[in-house]
Design brief:
By secondary structure, the protein is an alpha+beta fold. The chain has 13 helices and 10 strands.
């Protein structure tokens, strides 16, 4: 169990972010250490295995010999909500060798490796190349859809924060997280520090991921925010095309296209993504969304340049009744 001593100042500095590097690194580690046949993200892991050889990750694997630890230098802190993979990769490539050597020494102390590595600079360079390759062949082809899921997750949990406060937010992110007292956030993790970690007013950064060998990962580094990385709400939809609906009532009342549109809107989705998944024009989607909004069945939120639509409470009740 890990505990974080959260002050009022920390609570005012809670923010969400999307980190392509964190998502990629955690996905690489998952590919190395998870059994695809028993994991909820089996289809993603099988897709990744079909696109890359484990031998192509040899340097990365040396930094992650087990599924229980992630090298901090490979998880740079995002300085704003949406950062570019290329910028984060450059941060990793520029990590001081002394910092990496300290982390390798920790691996050795914990018995994860038998002897510290030599020529750390070359190992870092090779690992950076492997991460870049993995991003190109595994993550980037699906990144638009993955990013939509991550943005939808952030809107979902932001709404939980507004409607239910921090207790609802943390428990909604993962059931392993509890915030039952006014100043301690408890997270069920393998790590068991002797005392709560104090962020000292730097706040918390919440980052959704797609797939990892642990659902919740906590980074506690002095003089910076606590970073909590968690499995995104709706992660299993990473490659889902049109969601089928077998409800005769939905189809009879709304027609096949409208029934499928309502089913898709159970997850916050942009007009562009809806058009692609339902194989209709963005103009046709916009017209149907306007009608659903007039009927008070959906709501919308803007995230950057995109507007995401989703079922409101009336829409969810309708889908549950007829879906």
């Amino acid at each position: 169990m890990m505990q974080i001593a959260v002050s009022t100042e920390d609570l005012t500095k809670i923010r969400f972010a999307i980190s392509p590097m964190m998502i990629t690194v955690l996905a690489m580690r998952a590919l190395l250490h998870l059994n695809p046949t028993t994991h909820p993200m089996r289809d993603w892991l099988e897709m990744a295995q079909s696109r890359i050889e484990i031998n192509d990750l040899s340097a990365f694997q040396k930094f992650h010999p087990t599924g229980n630890y992630v090298m901090d230098f490979m998880l740079p802190l995002p300085d704003h909500a949406q950062v570019k993979f290329e910028d984060e990769l450059q941060q990793v490539a520029n990590t001081p060798i002394t910092q990496i050597e300290e982390e390798i020494a920790y691996l050795h102390q914990q018995g994860m490796i038998t002897t510290p590595y030599s020529d750390v600079s070359a190992l870092r360079e090779q690992a950076v190349d492997e991460i870049a390759h993995f991003w190109t062949v595994v993550m980037q082809p699906y990144w638009q859809r993955i990013r939509t899921i991550l943005e939808g997750d952030i809107m979902h949990h932001s709404r939980q924060l507004v409607l239910g406060g921090t207790v609802s937010l943390f428990h909604g992110i993962d059931t392993s997280m509890t915030f039952e007292t006014s100043d301690v956030l408890s997270i069920a993790t393998r790590a068991t520090p002797p005392k709560p970690f104090d962020p000292q007013g730097h706040g918390l950064v919440l980052i959704p991921h797609l797939v990892s060998s642990c659902d919740v990962l906590v980074q506690t580094i002095p003089d910076r925010p606590v970073v909590i990385t968690y499995r995104a709400y709706g992660a299993g939809l990473w490659n889902q095309a049109t969601r089928p609906t077998d409800s005769n009532a939905m189809t009879v009342l709304f027609g096949d296209n409208r029934a499928h549109l309502l089913a898709e809107l159970a997850q916050p989705t942009s007009t562009k993504d809806l058009a692609q998944k339902l194989a209709v024009t963005p103009g046709a989607i916009s017209q149907q969304l306007s009608q659903l909004k007039e009927a008070d069945l959906i709501a919308s939120n803007r995230a950057g340049r995109s507007v995401y639509y989703y079922l409101n409470n009336r829409g969810v009740q309708l889908l549950e009744l007829l879906g």
